[in-house]
C-alpha cells in the first residue's frame, strides 16, 4: 500500500479484514521472534519479556546466546530458510517479529545474502499467513529508501527499485520489502514494515558493520575517515519502535525508526573522547580507499575473515545517509534518545564483553 494514508489506516485495515492486535501484555499472547540473537532482535526480546509477553525465538543451532541467558525465552532451533522448521515455530503464535537478516556488506557468495533476506522472508511470511498470525512486524531497513538529491533527510515517500540498490545487502532488503508489500496487497498479509536506520548499542554480538567501526575506532585502529554521514539510533529505541508498530502501526505502511544524523568524523571523535584517545584527523580521499577495499576483499577469500573495508561500503559512503523519523514520531509515538548515549552504551558493553581487548565471548 502507498504511504500517506495513516489517518484512515484503521478503516482500510478493517475493510481488508484486518483488526488491531491485542495488547502486548495479555495473558494469552504468544510472540515469535526471528533473529533474537542479533542486535535488534535481542533488544525486542528484552522489551517483550519485560512486558510480560511469552516469547518464542527461532534461532540457528550454534548461535551465541550468552547475552540472552537471563531472559525467559522458548528457544526453537531452525533456520528461516527451512520451511519446515519455520512452520513448526509458528504453532500457536499470534504475533511475529521477523527481524532476522544477513547483514553483511560482503560475502564470498552474494547469493547467500539473497537466500537469507529474500527467500527467508518469503518463507516466514507464507508460514505466518498459513498459521493465521494476527499481526506481523517486518524489520526492513532504510537501505530500501531513496536518498534526497539535496542531502536533506529522506522519508518513507520514495522507495528504491531493486536495481538501484548498492550491493547484495541493499538489493536483497529492497527485494524483501517489495515482497512483503505485494503479499499485503495481494494476499491480505497483516504486516507492518519498520525501517531502522543504523542501530547501535549493547549486545552487538556479531558485531554489525557499524559495531565493527565502533570497536575498531575504540581500539585506535581507524587513523582516518571518509567524508560521509549516517543516522544513528539506540537499539533499545528501535525495539520500542517495533512494539509501537505492533500496537499502533497501519497494515502495509512503513515507518523509519531513526535517531540523529551524524557526520562520521563527529562519530569517531565522540568514540575517541569516550575511550581517551585522540580522534582521527586524516580525511581519506575515496580514490585511495577503493584499492584498499579490493585488496581486503581478495584477502578475505583466502582467510575466510570478513573484510573491514568493502567496495560496497565505500560506494555507500559517497552519500550522507540522513533520514527523518517524523512519521513514526507522529503515528507511533516513537522517540529516540541522543546518539551519544547509544555510543556510550555500546562501548560499555563491548568493553565488558571483551571486544576492546580481543577476548570477546562467543
Overall residue-averaged pLDDT value: 89
- The main sheet orders its strands as 3-2-1-4-5-6-10
Structural class: alpha/beta
**What portion of residues belong to β-strands?**
5-15%
Features:
Rossmann fold, four-stranded mixed β-sheet, disordered N terminus, seven-stranded parallel β-sheet, 15% strand, globular, alpha/beta, single chain, 362 residues
Can you describe this structure?
The chain is α/β, with parallel strands linked by helices and 362 residues long. The protein has a domain at 6-200 and 232-258 and 324-336: Rossmann fold. Helix content is 41%, strand content 15%. The protein is built from twelve helices and 13 strands. The chain has helices at residues 9-15, 39-50, 83-89, 110-130, 167-187, 209-218, 235-248, 264-275, 286-303, 311-316, 326-332, 339-352; strands spanning 30-34, 54-59, 73-77, 95-98, 135-139, 191-196, 198-200, 224-225, 229-234, 254-257, 260-263, 282-283, 320-321. The strands form three sheets. It has a seven-stranded parallel sheet, with helices on both faces. Strands 7, 9, 11 and 13 form a four-stranded mixed sheet that branches. α4 (110-130) runs parallel beside α5 (167-187) and α8 crosses α12.
Amino acid at each position: 500500500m502507498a504511504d500517506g494514508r495513516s489517518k484512515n489506516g484503521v478503516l482500510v485495515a478493517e475493510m481488508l479484514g484486518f483488526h488491531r492486535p491485542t495488547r502486548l501484555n495479555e495473558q494469552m499472547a504468544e510472540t515469535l521472534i526471528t533473529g533474537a540473537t542479533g542486535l535488534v532482535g535481542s533488544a525486542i526480546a528484552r522489551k517483550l519479556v519485560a512486558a510480560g509477553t511469552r516469547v518464542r525465538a527461532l534461532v540457528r543451532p550454534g548461535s551465541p546466546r550468552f547475552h540472552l541467558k537471563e531472559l525467559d525465552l522458548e528457544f526453537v532451533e531452525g533456520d528461516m530458510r527451512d520451511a519446515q522448521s519455520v512452520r513448526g515455530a509458528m504453532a500457536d503464535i499470534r504475533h511475529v517479529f521477523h527481524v532476522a537478516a544477513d547483514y553483511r556488506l560482503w560475502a564470498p557468495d552474494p547469493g547467500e545474502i539473497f537466500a537469507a533476506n529474500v527467500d527467508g522472508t518469503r518463507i516466514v511470511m507464507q508460514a505466518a499467513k498459513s498459521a493465521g498470525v494476527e499481526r506481523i512486524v517486518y524489520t526492513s531497513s532504510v537501505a530500501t529508501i531513496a536518498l534526497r538529491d539535496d542531502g536533506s533527510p529522506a522519508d518513507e515517500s520514495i522507495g528504491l527499485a531493486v536495481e538501484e540498490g548498492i550491493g547484495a545487502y541493499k538489493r536483497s532488503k529492497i527485494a524483501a520489502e517489495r515482497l512483503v508489500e505485494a503479499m499485503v496487497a495481494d494476499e491480505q498479509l497483516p504486516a507492518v514494515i519498520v525501517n531502522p536506520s543504523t542501530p547501535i548499542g549493547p549486545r552487538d554480538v556479531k558485531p554489525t558493520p557499524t559495531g565493527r567501526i565502533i570497536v575498531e575506532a575504540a581500539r585506535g585502529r581507524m587513523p582516518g575517515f571518509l567524508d560521509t554521514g549516517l543516522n544513528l539510533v539506540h537499539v533499545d529505541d528501535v525495539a520500542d519502535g517495533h512494539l509501537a508498530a505492533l500496537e499502533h502501526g497501519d497494515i502495509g505502511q512503513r515507518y523509519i525508526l531513526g535517531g540523529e544524523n551524524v557526520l562520521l568524523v563527529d562519530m569517531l571523535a565522540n568514540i575517541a573522547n569516550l575511550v581517551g584517545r585522540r580522534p582521527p584527523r586524516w580525511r581519506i580521499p575515496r580514490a585511495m580507499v577503493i584499492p584498499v577495499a579490493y585488496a581486503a576483499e581478495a584477502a578475505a577469500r583466502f582467510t575466510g575473515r570478513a573484510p573491514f573495508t568493502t567496495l560496497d561500503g565505500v560506494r555507500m559512503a559517497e552519500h550522507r545517509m540522513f533520514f527523518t523519523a517524523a512519521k513514526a514520531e507522529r503515528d507511533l509515538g516513537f522517540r529516540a534518545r541522543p546518539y551519544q548515549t547509544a555510543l556510550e552504551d555500546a562501548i560499555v558493553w563491548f568493553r565488558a564483553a571483551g571486544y576492546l581487548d580481543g577476548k570477546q565471548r562467543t
